[in-house]
């Protein structure tokens, strides 16, 4: 009597490596192999999938169509902007609108003012936010919870509530129409502090206690341990604060009175007053001057912004 060895059929023929007869998988009717993996959940109905895709496309259109119209109108000749029906694809491209906008308003000075106020204001605001968040997480002092609740509670107040008080304070200090008057009232940010506070809470305090035993003070622990570990959220907060300061309009409009101290958003209003409501190609070119730097920054750093916020939420 002959014995069957593993991997052979009754006739002695070796089984193929992928043969289902050797793995014990029962073939389904019709020769198909039954899937023993994890069963998938119920499929979404086709009408629900269609609604989802339509909603996504509509959302994309709401955001992208105005941007496309802005940039295309800035590159169109004057007569093509007012044609009907609308011409979505320009027949000819021109840079005349940008040249005229640059010559009609001192955009070189507007750019300089925006760069100074945005960079210095962001650096000061993030420095204060890091110091404040570190104190609330790693330093014990009296009334810490009360102070934290008051600072976070300030997020519920609209920014326009403090305009009059800030203006009177800046006027009494003699900072009207100056960089100090534009920058200093906005360097205390409860939003950036709260983001960093939530992230610093996830840092293991044993690391800081070991550094304290080695003789490191609060400043050294913050600079050498906490700040490097919190760098993803610091970068996210920096980008959010920078975009907000670049686009700030109301406060610089109130605290400045001459064109040489205006920032870019106010410079766009100045350009509109120069050109009126008829030369929209030039006004669109000025809007491109204002929005393009932050659009480039956002598209280059959007993964870091979303990643930092998601990391803070998950932790």
From TrEMBL:
GO terms for cellular component: plasma membrane. Keywords: Cell membrane, Membrane, Sugar transport, Transmembrane, Transmembrane helix, Transport. The chain crosses the membrane at residues 47-71, 110-139, 146-168, 180-200, 221-243, 280-301. InterPro entries: MetI-like, MetI-like_sf. Belongs to the binding-protein-dependent transport system permease family. PANTHER family: ABC TRANSPORTER PERMEASE PROTEIN MG189-RELATED-RELATED, SN-GLYCEROL-3-PHOSPHATE TRANSPORT INTEGRAL MEMBRANE PROTEIN ABC TRANSPORTER UGPE-RELATED. This is ABC-type sugar transport system, permease component. It comes from Brachybacterium faecium (strain ATCC 43885 / DSM 4810 / JCM 11609 / LMG 19847 / NBRC 14762 / NCIMB 9860 / 6-10).
